[in-house]
Design a protein that fits this description.
Blueprint (H helix, E strand, L loop, with lengths): L1 H19 L20 E7 L5 E7 L4 E6 L2 E7 L6 E4 L3 E6 L2 E6 L2 E5 L5
Antiparallel strand pairs: 1-2, 2-3, 3-4, 4-5, 5-6, 6-7, 7-8
């Protein structure tokens, strides 16, 4: 019985101690100094069966991707996919999961990586 009471007291003390500690916040204090914000950028490329290459530069800070394909450069904004990636603009749609990438211009698939979707 004493072990049970002692265990309960120790667990209660740990609970109260952990709840009263301050948590770190991500607030930035402006004090007139210039603050540099580093962006999370990832560059990658994919190749289709015809040997065409799609270059992609993901800016995860701004939730955009810049694509380069057949001499065309486009910037697409992130959408909310169930899983994988999904970026769009007025002309193009980039989607995929893992190494499987598909680029559409309107309804036409203009690029599909060699890995099946």
């Amino acid at each position: 019985m004493k072990k049970t009471i002692l265990s309960f007291v120790m667990l209660s003390a740990l609970f109260f101690i952990s709840c009263t500690e301050e948590t770190a916040s991500n607030t930035v204090e402006v004090s007139g100094e210039k603050t540099e914000i580093k962006e999370d950028i990832v560059k990658t490329s994919s190749t289709d069966e015809q040997g065409n290459t799609l270059e992609m530069t993901f800016n995860n800070t701004k939730n955009i991707v810049t694509i380069e394909f057949e001499g065309i450069t486009q910037e697409l904004s992130s959408e909310r996919p169930a899983s994988g990636i999904w970026y769009t603009n007025d002309e193009y749609e980039l989607s995929g999961k893992g190494d499987a990438i598909e680029l559409k211009k309107g309804e036409e698939v203009v690029f599909k990586s060699t890995t099946p979707l």
